[in-house]
Design a protein that fits this description.
This protein is α+β, with helices and mostly antiparallel strands and 183 residues long. It is built from five helices and four strands. The chain has a four-stranded antiparallel β-sheet, with helices on both faces. Strand 2 and strand 3 form a beta hairpin. The chain starts with 9 loop residues before the first strand and ends with a helix. The N terminus is likely disordered.
């Protein structure tokens, strides 16, 4: 049994959509990426068979249908432990890459707060912009956490960085209100 309780069960999605117009293929591709599905080959994707993905899989199938295509869904499991481990590894590697990008964006947020403080940009407009940036990081974190069913190694670091970014915004908020009220 795996950490997410799926027992090593997977859905293999065989996607068949006409090449033209390409917007339908792109829409399905984007939805599969949002799910966190990993490509296995041309038009073939895998995703853990867990309830968290059901709605998005249905959405991808709906998008395929709009493009006069289809998604054939097959229940699967690795033939042996090595195959099962490889599927889980591919999925976890994809989440690890997503978390790495998220962590880099947290660093950019931190640097942006440093720059605003250093240049004395302590305005309500800048504060609103930074609040929006933090909210984007929060949404992104929730999305990544939802699809990280096996727990990628850098998940905890990402959570700590979100907490740090929240603390940085609270400090920046205090500085902005002090500056605004001194005017």
């Amino acid at each position: 049994m795996t950490a997410d309780g799926n027992g090593g069960r997977w859905l293999v999605l065989a996607v068949r959509i006409p090449a033209e117009p390409s917007r339908h293929r792109v829409a399905v591709w984007r939805e599969l990426r949002r799910i966190g599905a990993v490509p296995l080959g041309q038009g073939c994707w895998a995703v853990p068979d867990v309830p968290a993905f059901a709605g998005r899989i249905a959405r991808a199938a709906e998008l395929a249908g709009r493009g006069e295509g289809e998604i054939i869904m097959l229940n699967a499991a690795g033939r042996d432990e090595a195959d099962a481990a490889r599927l889980e590894g591919l999925f976890t590697e994809a989440r690890q890459a997503e978390w790495a990008e998220y962590i880099a964006d947290c660093g950019k947020f931190d640097a942006e707060i440093d720059a605003e403080i250093a240049t004395g940009k302590l305005t309500l407009a800048e504060l609103e912009e930074e609040e929006q940036s933090l909210e984007r990081l929060r949404r992104w974190h929730r999305e990544l956490a939802t699809r990280d069913v096996f727990g990628a190694p850098n998940t905890a670091e990402a959570g700590q960085l979100l907490k740090h970014c929240t603390e940085r915004l609270a400090d920046y908020t205090d500085r902005v209100f002090q500056a605004v009220h001194q005017m």
